[in-house]
Amino acid sequence: MTALAYREACRQGLREALLRDPKVFLMGEDIGRYGGCYAVTKGLIEEFGEERIRDTPLSESAYVGAGIGAALVGMRPIVEIMTVNFSLLALDQIVNNAATIPYMSGGQFAVPLVIRIATGGGRRVAAQHSHSLEGWYAHIPGLRVVAPAVVEDARFMLAAALADPNPVLIFEHVMLYNIEAELDPAVSEVDIAHAKLRREGRDVTLIGCGNGLVKALAAAEILASQGISAEVVDLRVLRPLDTATILKSVAKTRRAVIVDEGWRSGSLSAEIGMRIAEEAFFDLDAPLRRVCGAEVPMPYAPHLEDAALPQPAAIAAAARGLVQPAKGAQ
Amino acid sequence: MSKVHLDHAHLHHLLRQMIRIRHFEAKCVELYQAQKILGFLHLYDGEEAVSVGVMEALGPEDAVVATYREHGQAIARGIGMDRLMAEMLGKREGCCRGRGGSMHIFDRAARFYGGNAIVGGGLPLAVGIALGDKMQGRPAITACFFGEGAVDEGEFHESMNLASLWRLPVLFVCENNLYSMGMALERAEAETELVRKAAGYRMAAAAVDGMDAVAVEVAARAALERIHGGEGPQFLECRTYRFRAHSMYDAQLYRTKDEVEAWRKKGPIGRFHEWLRESGLIHDEEVRAIEAEADAEIEAAVGFAEAGSLEPVSELERFVTMERVPS
Predict the structure, then answer these.
(1) What's the sign of the alpha-carbon dihedral A233, A236, A238, A241?
(2) The one catalytic residue among A8, A80, A129, A271
(3) Under 8 Å CB-to-CB from A238, ≥6 apart: which residues?
(4) How far apart are CA B172 and CA B198, in angstroms?
(5) Secondary structure element (H or E) that encloses residue A47, with its range
(6) Where are the beta strands (DSSP E) in A157-201?
(7) Quick check: B188 and B152 in contact, CB under 8 A?
(8) pLDDT digits over B82-122, tens only?
(9) What is the mean pLDDT of chain A?
(10) In which region does residue B246 sit, left (phi positive, over 0), alpha (psi from -120 to 50) or beta (all else)?
(11) Which of B155, B156, B158 to mutate to test binding with chain A, by most A CBs within 10 Å of its CB?
(12) C-beta separation of A243 from A279 below 8 A
């Protein structure tokens, strides 16, 4: 078995979708001749042609809206937005049209659109290319929001998204494109409904998504070396939240740390924390903790950017503080 | 296909359509004052010739993207007044089961893709509908209605460019009523000759008297023929005027009574009626019959709507997400 890179897994997913359904086509900036900003779509224009791999002008609102329109009349468009900050230029179309038309029309129309968006920090590209705004999108009824954090999900979430009759936003964290893993040959599909345990443990639950999952798993290693058994939940689906899986883990470990690259105030981590508080308050042996992105526009300098992002040491420290309150950092 | 049949029957039909819209909205005002219609109510009073003319040129295979001032667009497209009125009254029998209201009329059978209440927000949709139809080999054209206020928006420019770049079958119909709410065109746009905007996108454009249904139909048919002939999307500016307030109430401080009166004299129904009568193409009793027929249709629609049921609150969250793609 050979290892597959996350980027290549995304590309294979796209290629499979294009081969499987003639109604699938791609739109986005530099996805064709350039090969994709993150090289995810490399080679697809040569294989499928310009009709199905559509390079667009820098008109996020128009081409995302065009994706919605094409979805309304029977196509299965996959739209790529280079980075989540650029998606703000298409926010009107995503929030006011994609998320509302099925409802406003009384169920006469569906919007089976997939939008792939690169997200997250760590590439030293400062305050207009590095944020994690997926939590905002998770606020919007009518959207499904997913965040593949492992190669298997990068490979198979797209097919599940295309099978969904609703608009699905797939957030690909930019620090994950180069990670590699061997795929289980027995797995040929994944769901986009459930969170998943990525590591079992007894003492504390670490909850994260995207690159936050990678950080949480690293934190769990640190904790293991210190005799603390951490369970790690990969959110996978940010909307609708799989609260049941979260609560089940918290009921077992009785402690939770939520990792969120987004800013703390009004964040997805706040939503998760509140759901635990509402549903599992009496299961808890310790207060809930969060490790979030610092509330700053992302700085360029590496030491500042690293300080602005959740890091394994900080996650481990937060967890340790819950399990060993006398010894741990608060 | 581009010919407008200026026969007796067709001319009567155009007048009838405009009267149906005008009277329907007059009834809406009554129901609004009786607090049976709530929220915003944007009247098309004065602009009827635009959608009547354009819709006459469209076929059932074509698609329509509408604005929030879309009662006239919906009626001219053939959406039944009963389901329309039921929607205005927030009833389950309404075309959107009471979820859309006045500003969000959708009708799948009519390929009517919504009253869109974000100015300019419908233009990218129209581009995509045209793209989707074209990619599936449908010989359909998407007529996209928007006001001149949408020209201020970036989405207008992005969509005009994309439609032209990809040579998509879109008829951009600009209903230029000179004011976006209270903002006069000359106070909002550096270039007020809107057809010139299209030139920047190498799109053919024409301006037409939007108070003249026949002129609008002729212009729309010509534009559609050019699209079918492979000449790419077309821009049609219909110069019109809104006789009443932006929504139900505004003090109209932004325009003079004299200006409104001057436009009223050019009203699409009065002037057309007068021309028909002077040309001996219609008799007063025929007009009265058209009006009576429209009023009866409206009364029946109100009866249907009033007798309608309320969507159960247990259905509040239905259609937030869909279980399948409707076909």
Answers:
(1) negative
(2) A129
(3) A134, A135, A137, A138, A145, A146, A147, A171, A209, A268
(4) 10
(5) helix A44-48
(6) 168-173, 180-181, 196-199
(7) yes
(8) 999 999 999 999 999 999 999 999 999 999 999 999 999 99
(9) 96
(10) alpha
(11) B158
(12) yes
Copy the structure tokens of residue B256: 């003079």
**Cα dihedral value B69, B75, B77, B83, nearest 10:** 100
Long-range Cβ pairs for the range A49-56 (8 Å, 24+): A51/A25, A51/B135, A52/A18, A52/A24, A52/A25, A52/A26, A53/A25, A53/A26, A54/A25, A54/A26, A54/A27, A54/A28, A55/A28, A55/A29, A55/A30, A55/A31, A56/A27, A56/A28, A56/A29, A56/B162
Separation of alpha carbons A239 and A232, rounded Å: 19
Q: Which residues of B touch A162 (CB under 8 A)?
A: none
Helix, strand, coil percentages, rounded to 5, for chain A: 40, 20, 40
- Chain A CB contacts of B321 under 8 Å are 102, 141-142, 144, 165-166
Identity at A97, one-letter amino acid code = N
Q: Distance between CA B115 and CA A282 in Å, rounded?
A: 49
Give the distance from residue B201's alpha carbon to the nearest chain A alpha carbon, in angstroms. Answer: 13
Mean pLDDT (whole number) for A242-259 = 98
ipTM of the complex: 0.96
Tokens of A275: 């759901």
**A295 is annotated as an active-site residue:** no
Q: Which residues of A touch B172 (CB under 8 A)?
A: none
Query: Which residue from A minimizes the CA distance to B156?
Result: A62
Beta strand B204-209 pairing with B234-239: parallel
Render the burial of B312-325: b for 16+ CB within 10 Å, e for the rest.
Answer: eeeeeebbbbbeeb
| pTM passes above 0.80 | yes
A71 with B132: Cβ contact below 8 A: yes
Distance from CA of residue A48 to its chain's centroid? 27
Does residue A19 contact residue A12 with C-beta atoms inside 8 Å?
no
Looking at residue A164, the DSSP 8-state letter turns out to be S
Q: Hey, of A18, A23, A52, A72, which one would you mutate to test binding to chain B, going by the most B CBs within 10 A of its CB? A: A72
CB–CB contact A73 B324 (8 Å) = no
3-class SS of residue A329: coil
The whole-angstrom separation of Cα A173 and Cα A154 is 10
- Respond yes or no: is residue A173 known to be catalytic: no
What integer pLDDT is reported at residue A328 of this predicted model? 46
For A206, the enclosing helix (H) or strand (E) is strand A204-208
pLDDT digit string, tens, across residues B216-245: 999 999 999 999 999 999 999 999 999 999
Nearest CB partner across the interface for A142, out of B124, B162, B321: B321
Spatial CA neighbour of B85 closest among B116, B53, B41, B45 = B41
CB contact under 8 A, A101 and B124: no
Instruction: Indicate which residue of A60, A134, A271, A305 is catalytic.
Output: A60
Length, in residues, of chain A: 330
Which DSSP category does B64 fall into?
E
CA–CA dist B295, B12 (Å, integer) = 16
CA distances to A90, A109, A239, A253, B275 from A230, in Å = 39, 45, 25, 8, 84
